[in-house]
């Protein structure tokens, strides 16, 4: 079936299709779109306010509409430019990050504020990428740092002895007045 567009009436063209001006309407409010901005979906064309009401997500940070892209953190939508480190305010959308109490932090801020420090090298223990670490009493070590304080042999999975704040293999620790 062909519908003729009479001379003198305005016609609208969008994506290779033609409408009478009064027929080119928003799928939601049914008002003519005319030359106003619109957003097209498979289900039809929408004026911007109706599209925002029906489909848009609102950024958890700035509370404004996310029109395209965006990221999800803790099941909440964010603009990429609004997803910032809670410490230094650096953008995190392309960065590795950690979270604490539902707040995202860049690795530097997280390590500075929250990460435990290795008793041997004093660098942060983050547990990223399945990194393994050892905890004993109130101290922790990276697996590669958990070594005898005298001969440097790895103590991972082995018995060890302590004296003051030092750890030793059984061989080096025998004869010392040890804590354990």
UniProtKB/TrEMBL annotation:
SUPFAM superfamilies: Glucocorticoid receptor-like (DNA-binding domain) (SSF57716). One of its GO terms (molecular function) is zinc ion binding. PROSITE patterns: LIM_DOMAIN_1, LIM_DOMAIN_2. Residues 57-116, 117-179 form the LIM zinc-binding domain. GO terms for cellular component: nucleus; Z disc. Its main location: nucleus. This is Four and a half LIM domains protein 5 isoform X5. Pfam families: LIM. The gene is FHL5.
